[in-house]
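Researcher: Next entry in the queue.
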Amino acid sequence: MLTRRQLRIKVMQAVFSFQRQNTDDLKDLEKFINTSMTQSYTLFLYMAQLLVKIHEEAVERHGKKQRRLLSSNVEENPSRHFIDNKILLQLRESEALKDALQQRDLDPWHLDSKYVENLYFKIQESKTFVVYSMDEEPSLKKDLKFLTYIYEDIIAPSDELLDYLEDINITWTDDFPLVNSTMIQFMRKIKPLKEVVLPPLFKDQEDAKFTMNLFRKTLLNINELSARIEGKTPNWDKERIAQIDMVLIMMAQAEFLYFSDIPVKVTINEYLEIAKDYSTPKSANFINGILDNLLKEFEKNDQLHKMGRGLM
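Model: Structure for this entry, 312 residues:
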């Protein structure tokens, strides 16, 4: 689930915290990274369970409406498309999701049903819901299209929802876009009569190792990495360089020097993209210039030892 860029962001936050706290306890910061990564997965479970709760709300309200119509002798059959949505039904019955929540002792939305209700009403009031409910030929493809719409256009953009999640965990603001993308991919893989497969936290164990190695290599060599930056900024005092920029440049250096399997171009691109989201408007150009000068120095001193074709 977590991409390499997201993992780099987790490391950036930990190194930044290290500099601010000036602590020598690396184990606490490693715990911080691990907690941050597992909390990202907790957010995914929150969002998956949110769909389940919205579906439960729809089922309950559909039942109440039917009972009212029967008691008033009105011959009307409310649309069942939403409550019969094949993807939502499969997700609601998923043992994998239930087990994941139980293992973490999570019961999201149980005490915060107003968010579920508010989103349900927004869905019900949407034009897409009306069109979907009136469709005379429902299908799995249409179920997915509808579910994708309500997630992308109603659930994910909800400021009320994001404020609520941010109150639970401040780091979820950074994780929210990634989790939303993961949710869309996850829903597309759900098939009727097949057990739901939850996405793994890491693509593979190499990503987990990469995260901790990047953190350790950056911190264990922090004085050397920092000193090298000062020599490449003749017109800037160290104190005038944005602290996030310093962290990103040190991490990029660590990848240049200690990660033989990561292409230089990939490293540069990743940190420039992170800078655009987390630092000042001019940071990406500044960082790019510093990294370019550092690369020339590393190549001149034969310090780059990349393995494999195309890694330079």
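Model: The mean pLDDT is 91.
Researcher: Noted, moving on.
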